[in-house]
């Protein structure tokens, strides 16, 4: 019997710093909720809007798999591994922080905001050699489909990380439905709605709602309005 935890959009932590308007699905920075520290290996799901020309100065990370998905605009990235790149809407970027990295992220545009999800997962292996990867997705593959954007395998679709996790992006037309079958026994799923309305095994989710599900083999997902959403299948222990 599947077990679920529902995180409605308006229950998230919120911080408006002027240059950064951030919503936190899990405890982050000054927002702490003891019931919302993590879901399995999923530690951070931040929904960020960065003002034109602003961003995060150089700061450190270690032993975390960091996934960035731009939703609108661009994000310029520099890091201590020598990478300097701009990720755009339709891209996905990952960093394995491992033994330690420093990086900065900012909105390079003077006239356009940047919106993005930043997601942190605990790694399967600690103190790996830091690595960076970004790719441009074929967004057409997401139409009425679960398009894989991340996995544990370098030769699979999407980027890869040091964790037994699979992420999919989907863009469903109203009334379209599809069944997701779990990739690895014991994993859980965190569903996050980017826009629109869906039902997951009958549970209705609206824009920016999150639903954590454990103890399942398959999930029936239906769009009750045109909808875009992110599926994050992740281990429940770390």
TrEMBL record:
Q: Using the record's annotation, list all stretches that form the Pirin N-terminal domain.
A: 11-121
User: What Gene3D superfamilies does UniProt report for this protein, alphabetically?
Assistant: Jelly Rolls
Membrane-crossing residues? none
In this protein, which residues make up the domain named Quercetin 2,3-dioxygenase C-terminal cupin?
Answer: 149-234
The UniProt similarity line reads: Belongs to the pirin family.
Task: Name the InterPro entries for this protein.
Answer: Pirin (IPR012093), Pirin_N_dom (IPR003829), Quercetinase_C (IPR041602), RmlC-like_jellyroll (IPR014710), RmlC_Cupin_sf (IPR011051)
Q: Give the source's domain of life in one word.
A: Bacteria
List, alphabetically, the SUPFAM superfamilies matched. Answer: RmlC-like cupins
Supply the source organism for this entry.
Answer: Flavobacterium zubiriense
Pfam annotation, one family: Pirin_C_2
Q: What is this protein called?
A: Pirin family protein
């Amino acid at each position: 019997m599947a077990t679920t935890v529902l995180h409605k959009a308006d229950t998230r932590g919120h911080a408006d710093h002027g240059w950064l308007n951030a919503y936190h699905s899990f405890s982050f920075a000054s927002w702490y909720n003891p019931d919302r520290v993590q879901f399995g290996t999923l530690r951070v799901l931040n929904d960020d809007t960065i003002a034109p020309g602003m961003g995060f100065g150089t700061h450190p990370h270690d032993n975390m798999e960091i996934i960035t998905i731009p939703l609108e605009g661009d994000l310029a990235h520099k890091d201590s591994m020598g990478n300097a790149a701009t990720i755009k809407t339709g891209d996905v970027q990952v960093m394995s922080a491992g033994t330690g990295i420093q990086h900065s992220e900012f909105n390079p545009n003077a006239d356009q905001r940047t919106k993005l999800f930043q997601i942190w997962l605990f790694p399967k292996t600690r103190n790996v050699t830091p690595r960076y990867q970004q790719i441009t997705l074929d967004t057409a593959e997401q139409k009425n489909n679960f398009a894989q954007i991340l996995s544990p395998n370098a030769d699979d679709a999407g980027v890869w990380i040091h964790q037994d996790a699979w992420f999919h992006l989907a863009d469903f037309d109203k009334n379209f439905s599809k069944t997701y079958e779990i990739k690895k026994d014991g994993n859980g799923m965190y569903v996050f709605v980017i826009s629109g309305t869906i039902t997951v095994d009958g549970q209705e989710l609206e824009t920016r709602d999150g639903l954590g599900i454990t103890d399942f083999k398959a999930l029936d997902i239906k769009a009750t309005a045109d909808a875009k959403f992110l599926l994050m299948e992740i281990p429940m222990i770390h």
